[in-house]
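Re: that chain you flagged

S.,

Sorry for the slow reply, it's been a week of failed gels. I finally had a moment to sit down with the sequence you sent. For the record, here it is as I used it:
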Amino acid sequence: MNEGNFTGFSVEMRDPGIAWFQFTTPERLNGMTAAIKRDLVEAVTQAQMDNEVRVVVFTGSGRAFCAGDDLKGYQNVQVEGEPLVPPIHHGHDNHIGTYNGLRTISQRVNTAIRSLDKLTIAAINGVAIQTGFSLALSCDFRIAAAGARMGSATLRFGLLPDEGGQYLLVQLLGVAKTMDFLMRKRIVTAEEALELGLLNQVVEKDDLVDETMALATELADGPQVSMRLLKRSVYNAAELNWDQALDEIASKTAISDHHSDAGEGVRAFLEKRNARFNDWLD
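Prediction finished late last night. Pasting the structure tokens below so you have them in one place:
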């Protein structure tokens, strides 16, 4: 996939197969614009289709992970970086324009992240609000630095969590806790988010990159085919009944059982050594 500095973020490949996305407008608290979102969709699509990419990490720079939409950015303010895709109108100029802007641009970022079969990590270095919060919730794992704060809080402006935040929170918290979280406009500390179940881990700020890389490396060294099939199966299981879930995992097992990684896993067990997966990627 393309590495470099794009509209509002950079992409760097790190061994073993980790695509490191970093938001690069700290002076705007890494606020999102339509142009940033369109480039993110393209870059995430590239990550999906590139066999060298095994794990995708998102993190911020400065004080914020991403503090929501940059409203000034919707007034044609230029953001530094080399565009991956040509600009288009952002919508939001009338009722149908808002609908189209959400469905065509804003919501596609989280859809693209959720649709990745590669595992994803949000390394939340600071404030994650609204757009940034829903992007983090779209990832499979979330690690936050102590002192980070996060929430939706759209009702503080009379707005809605229109990029899928309500759906993601219901999956993580359930209906009752989501109602409390959104209606009371809660912005919580990393420690509170961990207690709620919104985070997997809280670490010291200076350890965030190292801890994220350790997790990303662990995931990247695992059997990629089975892990990708299992990721999709877990998300599917949240919306299937028992018989459907059994049939779904059986169809995926028909692939994983006959993959070279499964043979290596059995040999490694019998030989009492660590498995060396992913020869198909070499």
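What I noticed first: The longest strand covers residues 9-14.

Talk soon,
D.
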